[in-house]
Structures are given as structure tokens and as C-alpha cells.
Design a protein that fits this description.
Elements lengths: L36 H16 L7 E6 L7 H17 L3 E6 L11 H6 L5 E5 L22 H21 L2 E8 L4 E4 L6 H5 L2 E4 L2 H9 L3 E4 L2 H10 L4 E4 L4 H6 L5 E3 L7 E7 H5 L3 H35 L3 E3 L4 H22 L1 H9 L4
Parallel strand pairs: 1-2, 1-3, 6-7, 6-8, 9-11
Antiparallel strand pairs: 3-10, 4-10, 5-8, 5-9
Helix pairs in contact: 2-10, 4-12, 6-11
């Protein structure tokens, strides 16, 4: 908090204790004696700035956390949102990004952490939230979208359901962030079914772990923040991920091969504590909502060139990218995916299934 005599660590919306007060405004008289000309001039200048210049307003601060690096798509989304909020609010509201799980929270923990008021907002990989409701696994279902346009259609159709699911938990959906298509990072070229079945793979949600297990690989659902340690200790030797941005920089140190299996174009979801959102003054709430809408538009536009940018960076750093995948390997993964999607349909409920069917590529 800036501009107040003591820092406030609580989410606030301009309450009196957080607002800078000129001398005497808290019930005491203005000092009549012992006030030097220099002191009087300084106080008068401050009063004039408060009354006649830019209005003095307490700066409200939020923390917004993600387990991903600043240069990955979710990290860029948080930075964009924070920048637009500050600009639109004239500095009245500041969002402090916290990247790389430095706040101590993984995607699966973000919603509970917000509910406990430990942070005000966060970004979570949607698939990590399937323990709350299968709906959140929708965007990471395997091989159900074929293009960015398909992924956007699915996200747009699902948005009302995501919004309602968060509202039931007292939270507000701010914006969606798409990831580039998911591939497999490995130490050696992935050229066959036998090569896949020899791997111990980090999966990014329960659904992808199930697919890989059905295909005969060893697989574990591990958050990205914890995956690096598992690569270092050798308990996993492959990673299911797009390797976007800074995430790729972590991966290519261990895994110099990437196979373009185009598994999914999953989402991350940015969420705000509903109590914080409702407590904002109307004007400030409008700025937050506008910043969120602008951030979502930016994220989807950025994805259009993101894959080429990632591939260029990966090649510059010695990653071999395999775009022609062994046909029997593709067939195996799609067979495993069909069974997993069918099982998801039995658990997700009719509303979520209707969204998937409506979004089917035409």
C-alpha cells in the first residue's frame, strides 16, 4: 500500500484506514503553533494537490498467482491483465503477479487458496481442476479439436458453464488463456509404440495420465512446478506439454526431442475472489472487467503466431522437432483417447456433454 502511514495487508476497496489523510482530518485541530513557514508551505502544497490536483486515493493491491513462468502464455496473461488494470484505474488498483509457483500454490490448489483469502486472484490449468468438476477437463480432452478455431469455439461454448461453476464457489471467471498444441518431450526420438511404452511420462491432468496408461506407458499426473524435480531425479523421463515460452526453457535442458502429437489445445483459467470483485466501487469493477476482456482477446490473438515462435526458439536451443509421427503410435493414442473420452462422458453430466457435442469439428 502506498500513500498511507502504515501498510495495509488486507484486500481493500478504498476503506478509510487505507486512505491518506491530511493533518487534522481525523478529528484533531490543525497545528496552530510551532508550524514553520516551510512546514506550512509543505502542508498547503499537499492539501492543494489533494483537493485541486489528482485526487488522493488509496492504492488497492491484489496478488495473482500462477505456477507457470512469466514468459509462458498464462504468465503473459497475468502481466497483461495487471498492466491494463493499472492503466484503466489510473493506478488506483495494482495487481502483483506471482510466477513459477513462488506463492507456493499449484493449479489444483488455486481455487481453495483464493477461497481462504490467501491471494485475491490466480491462474490455473483447467485440467488440474477436474477433481472439482469434470467440466474443467473439457479443454484437455484428447484429440477433440483440430485447430485454433475449434479450440476457440469449444472455449466460447463452455464459458457460461465455467462462469457458473466458479460462481457456485464464490469466484469470478476473469478470462481464458489457450495453450499451444500439446506434444511429447523425450530424451530420445519417439519413433514407435515400443518407445512410448518404455517411457515414464509426466501427464498434466488425470485425463492425460489415463490416456497414456491405456496406451501402455507409465504416467503420473504431476503439476508443472513439480515436474522439473522429477526430471532431475530420473523418476520421469518424458513430459506431456506444449513447452510454451519459459516452460520450454526448463524442458530442453533435459529433453531435446519434441514430438508433435497435437494431443489438445487446453486452457488455463484466470479467477478472482467474488467477494473482492463485489466489493469494488462500480467504476473500478468496470475497469477490472474491461481489463479481463482485453486480456482474453490478446491471449487468443497471440496464440496465432505462438507455435512458430516456440518452434524457432526450440530449434535454436537444440531441440529436434518431429512433425511426422509413426502411424501405429498415432492409432494407439487415438484408441486410448476414445476410451478415456467415453468414460469422461459418463461422469461429466449432460450439460458438459452437450457442450462437447456442440463444439465437434464440422
Amino acid at each position: 500500500m502506498q500513500g498511507s502511514s502504515a501498510p495495509c495487508h488486507q484486500p481493500c476497496s478504498g476503506h478509510e484506514a487505507c486512505s491518506p489523510q491530511p493533518p487534522g482530518s481525523q478529528g484533531g485541530p490543525l497545528p496552530a503553533r510551532g508550524l514553520t513557514r516551510r512546514g506550512a508551505a509543505g502542508w498547503l502544497g499537499g492539501a492543494l494537490l489533494t483537493l485541486g490536483g489528482r485526487p488522493a486515493a488509496a492504492e488497492t493491491r491484489w496478488r495473482m498467482a500462477t505456477e507457470y513462468p512469466a514468459s509462458a502464455m498464462p504468465g503473459e496473461g497475468i502481466a497483461t491483465f495487471a498492466g491494463r488494470v493499472r492503466e484503466l484505474s489510473g493506478g488506483e488498483l495494482a495487481v502483483e503477479p506471482v510466477f513459477d509457483a513462488k506463492a507456493g500454490f499449484r493449479s489444483a490448489e488455486i481455487l481453495a487458496t483464493i477461497a481462504e483469502r490467501r491471494i485475491e486472484a490466480g491462474d490455473a490449468f483447467a485440467g488440474a481442476l477436474t477433481g472439482l468438476h469434470p467440466l474443467f477437463g473439457l479443454s484437455s480432452l484428447p484429440f477433440v479439436v483440430r485447430s485454433l478455431e475449434d479450440a476457440r469455439r469449444l472455449a466460447d461454448l463452455a464459458r457460461p458453464a465455467y462462469r457458473d461453476a466458479f460462481a457456485e464457489r464464490g469466484q469470478v471467471l476473469l478470462y481464458t488463456t489457450p495453450w499451444p498444441p500439446t506434444g511429447l518431450w523425450t530424451k530420445a526420438p519417439l519413433t514407435s509404440v515400443a518407445a512410448l511404452r518404455a517411457l515414464s511420462i509426466r501427464a498434466y491432468d488425470a485425463t492425460s495420465a489415463d490416456v497414456l496408461l491405456r496406451a501402455g506407458a507409465r504416467a503420473q499426473n504431476i503439476s508443472f512446478a513439480d515436474a522439473m524435480a522429477r526430471l532431475k531425479d530420473g523418476s520421469v523421463d518424458a513430459v506431456l506439454s506444449s513447452g510454451d515460452g519459459g516452460a520450454g526453457r526448463n524442458l530442453w535442458e533435459f529433453l531435446p526431442h519434441f514430438t508433435e502429437i497435437n494431443y489438445a489445445i487446453p486452457l488455463s483459467l484466470a479467477v478472482l475472489d467474488g467477494r473482492v470483485h463485489a466489493g469494488l466501487p462500480d467504476g473500478l469493477r468496470t475497469h477490472v472487467d474491461r481489463a479481463a476482456a482485453e486480456t482474453e482477446a490478446r491471449q487468443w490473438q497471440a496464440l496465432r503466431t505462438r507455435l512458430d515462435e516456440n518452434y524457432a526458439r526450440m530449434r535454436q536451443n537444440g531441440v529436434t522437432i518431429r512433425t511426422e509421427v509413426d502411424p501405429p503410435l498415432v492409432a494407439l493414442l487415438r484408441w486410448a483417447a476414445e476410451a478415456t473420452v467415453a468414460e469422461w462422458r459418463t461422469k461429466a453430466g449432460p450439460a458438459a456433454v452437450a457442450i462437447l457435442d456442440a463444439a465437434a469439428p464440422r
